[in-house]
């Protein structure tokens, strides 16, 4: 993988992204310490439920290290004020000078299961009493520097997942061909179970995985001696002592008389990766009542770690793929994912002779928002726009951040009238948004969108033409005052009238 990164004040963050979250935090603290001549810098995550600041990393006296320490910020303290206001706070005392720089952002949960999760906390910058304190301009620069660095924190998660995925692939190459083959196909769980059943000849093989956020053991697949593979996703077992013998096994407790009675023809094998149990593999000969030979048990157990890696790697691969297809800021799919879905939906519309609408929108004067108020305000605008869009769509609709502030929405089985109604809802909700801008005279920013709509088959018969017509409709809106909605069919009619009247369309550039 190419290790791309960006340069922040002369520091290349690409390698730290690739090395993962811990390396990224280390690089951030080392960089800010050198840039602002600090004696120490510490990274804290704030646990809102317990009210504790948990120290994760510290850089002091030229050394970076992981550290564990819990602090409870006193009400009214500099740390508490920084967390409450999300504004940088400076302080000075007997221990020296301090700057508390708060942050709040989302990142991908590397443990899996929770998807994108919030991260909230602060970075404390320190200078000893013999050094000068933080001036207001310097504090502002340090706070902006850290926020610029930390807004790319989720990339470290992305590359950390990639790194773990690559490491797992290297380990799995030492497995038998059946497990190696399982990695090369999309439905890897099926091939893993089928391979175990075929190779060992068990009556049945079942796979359960732990759903940690919901504290459940969930069924995945079952393979039997006839070669049939079935989903057992309907099986959900609370991961609590005494709830079920499977749960007891995973939790390391006694599983009762059943295990003892059938110990010769059933094997329960917890799957663990780096000491963390991720699931349970069960093989049995309960139907044939044939004894599982000790050498078979030993061989299967010797594969246990590799099987767990294969299963875990499949989950990691899906997570990495998901990260690469979605925009972290707006939570909308990215352009390459849109191109894939666009082909599928257009083919479906052609084949079944169904309508398909395409909405092309962009945020009015977005460049001016960034230039006037800064990219942080611009990011808030994009984030809120993404939220509004996702909350108004049907399950079959497909939005996409096409680039910059441009957003495209595919509306399968929708006519121009239906697409216009959706666009009107989006436009109305966006116009009601108030983005706080404390340092401006108005104290807030209002948002509007220009929207162009084209439809298949009424306006276009090809994918390229459908895109082009929606773009034309959007261009017409932007050249006639912005903040409006236009169907391509209406735009085409307006152009005909203008041409018939001898008028011209002197539209500004987009």
How would you concisely characterize the structure shown here?
The protein has 510 residues and is of the alpha+beta class. It has 17 helices and 21 strands.
**How is the largest sheet built, in terms of strand order?**
5-4-3-8-7-6
CATH fold descriptor of the largest domain: Alpha-Beta Plaits
Tally of helical runs: 17
Helix content: 40-55%
- Main sheet characteristics: 6 strands, antiparallel
**What is the number of domains?**
3
Rg result: 29 Å
Poorly predicted regions are 1-19, 167-186, 506-510
Overall pLDDT metric = 80
Name of the CATH homologous superfamily of the largest domain: Reverse transcriptase/Diguanylate cyclase domain
Question: What is the β-strand count?
Answer: 21
If classified by CATH, what would the architecture of the largest domain be? 2-Layer Sandwich
**End-to-end distance, in Å?**
36 Å
| Beta-strand residue fraction | 25-35%
Question: Overall 3D geometry?
Answer: flat
Oligomer: single chain
So what's the CATH class of the largest domain? Alpha Beta
Report the structural category. Answer: alpha+beta
């Amino acid at each position: 993988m190419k290790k791309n990164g960006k340069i922040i004040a002369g520091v290349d963050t690409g390698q730290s992204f690739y090395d993962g979250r811990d390396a990224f935090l280390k690089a951030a603290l080392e960089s800010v310490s050198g840039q602002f001549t600090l004696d120490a810098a510490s990274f804290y995550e704030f646990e809102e439920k317990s009210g504790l600041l948990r120290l994760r990393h510290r850089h002091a006296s030229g050394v970076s290290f992981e550290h564990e320490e819990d602090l409870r910020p006193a009400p009214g303290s500099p740390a508490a004020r920084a967390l409450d206001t999300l504004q940088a706070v400076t302080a000075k005392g007997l221990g020296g000078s301090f700057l508390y720089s708060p942050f709040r952002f989302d990142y991908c949960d590397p443990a899996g299961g929770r998807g994108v999760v919030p991260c909230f906390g602060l970075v404390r910058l320190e200078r000893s009493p013999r050094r000068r304190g933080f001036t207001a301009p310097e504090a502002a620069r340090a706070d902006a520097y850290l926020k610029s660095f930390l807004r790319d924190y989720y990339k470290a998660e992305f590359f950390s997942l990639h790194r773990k995925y690559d490491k797992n692939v290297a380990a799995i190459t030492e497995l038998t061909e059946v497990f190696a083959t399982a990695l090369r196909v999309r439905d890897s769980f099926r091939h893993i179970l089928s391979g175990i059943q075929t190779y060992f000849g068990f009556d049945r093989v079942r796979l359960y995985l732990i759903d940690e956020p919901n504290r459940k053991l969930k069924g995945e697949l079952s393979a039997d001696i006839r070669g049939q593979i079935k989903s057992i996703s309907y099986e959900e077992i609370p991961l609590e002592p005494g709830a079920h013998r499977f749960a007891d096994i995973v939790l390391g407790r006694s599983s009762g008389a059943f295990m003892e009675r059938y110990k010769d023809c059933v094997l329960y094998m917890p799957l663990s990766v780096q000491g963390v149990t991720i699931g349970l593999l069960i093989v049995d000969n309960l139907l044939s009542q044939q004894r599982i030979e000790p050498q078979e048990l030993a061989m299967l157990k010797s594969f246990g770690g590799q099987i767990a890696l294969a299963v875990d790697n499949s989950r990691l691969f899906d997570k990495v793929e998901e990260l690469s297809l979605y925009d972290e800021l707006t939570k909308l799919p990215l352009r390459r994912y849109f191109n894939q879905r666009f082909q599928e939906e257009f083919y479906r519309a052609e084949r079944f002779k169904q309508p398909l609408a395409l909405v092309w929108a962009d945020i009015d004067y977005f460049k001016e928002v960034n230039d006037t108020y800064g990219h942080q305000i611009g990011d808030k605008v994009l984030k809120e726009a993404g939220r509004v869009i996702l909350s108004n769509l049907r399950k079959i609709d497909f939005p996409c951040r096409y680039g910059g502030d441009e957003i495209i929405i595919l509306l399968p089985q929708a006519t121009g009238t239906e697409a216009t109604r959706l666009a009107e809802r989006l436009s109305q909700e966006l116009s009601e948004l108030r983005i706080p801008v404390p340092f401006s005279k108005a104290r807030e920013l209002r948002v509007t969108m220009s929207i162009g709509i084209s439809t298949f088959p009424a306006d276009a018969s090809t994918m390229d033409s459908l895109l082009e017509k929606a773009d034309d409709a959007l261009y017409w809106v932007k050249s006639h005052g912005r903040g409006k909605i236009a169907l391509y069919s209406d735009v085409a009619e307006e152009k005909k009238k203008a041409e018939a009247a001898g008028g011209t369309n002197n539209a500004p550039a987009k």
